[in-house]
Amino acid sequence: MNRESETRAGSDVRVSIEPLVERSLDPNVVGFLHRPAVSTRDAIVLTHGAGSNCRTELLLALAEAFAEAGMLVLRCDLPYRQRSPQGPPKPGSAERDRAGLGNAVLALREIAQGRIFLGGHSYGGRQSSILAASRPELVEGLLLLSYPLHPPRKPQQLRTQHFPQLRTPALFVHGTRDPFGSEAELTEAVRLIPARTSLLFLAGAGHDLKGGKGAEATHVRSVRERFVEFFAGG
């Protein structure tokens, strides 16, 4: 692994951030590792949505928040983003993106000493949940941010085919103004999942999980607190 270290100050805890590149795996694992000053031994992989990358404000804020809470965090670029710096995933790329997520978990498991979680925003979360449905032993839990339940204005095109096979505990975080699914639609859809689930709705937030002025920091704290509460004690 190729790493270069830097240290940034959090709100009250200093967190080490290291670029991580693992080219011995195919697909490669490319991203940033956030090491907590005091570890809980747990770790999480975080990835991005379609058309984005692991440097988004949302992923960076969440990674710092989780690391400050004692978790080892790997935020990484999906294979489609490694191939091209811009644009959405190409048709047919989802399977390779899921393989990349599996490799990211594998790379993190070599470093972490405790439980491993997997999370993603929108497309990244959807692929994480599909991967977990096919490999229930892969991670101990899922963090699904702005799950794209259906395309905007197309509620009949539900993306829930794998939900009945999903046996990994999952925390869904959703904005109340997200056009990819309403509170009622997501609440109903999650009932298809046989695993333990929790829903956190962020008032006024859209698909990017931003709200009004000053709301983003509050939302990040809410996500961290609900995650710690939901997965406490395994």
Give a written overview of the molecule.
The chain has 234 residues and is of the alpha/beta class. It has one domain (6-84, 94-153, 161-230): 3-Layer(aba) Sandwich (Rossmann fold). Helices cover 29% and strands 23% of the residues. The chain is built from six helices and nine strands, in the order ββββαβααβαββαβα. It has helices at 57-68, 79-83, 94-109, 123-134, 183-190, 215-230; strands spanning 6-9, 14-22, 29-35, 43-47, 72-77, 116-121, 141-145, 170-175, 197-202. A nine-stranded mixed β-sheet has the order 1-2-3-5-4-6-7-8-9, with helices on both faces. α1 links the parallel β4 (43-47) and β5 (72-77). α1 (57-68) packs across α6 and α3 crosses α4. It is globular. The protein starts with 5 loop residues before the first strand and ends with a helix. Mean pLDDT is 93; it is low at 1-7.
Quick summary:
The chain is an alpha/beta fold.
Number of domains: 1
Query: Which band does the percent of strand residues land in?
Result: 15-25%
- Largest sheet at a glance? 9 strands, mixed
Q: Examine the coordinates and then state which fold CATH places here, giving the name of the CATH topology.
A: Rossmann fold
Q: Could you name the ranges where pLDDT drops below 50 across 5 or more consecutive residues?
A: 1-7
CATH class: Alpha Beta
The CATH level-2 architecture is identified as 3-Layer(aba) Sandwich
Shape: globular
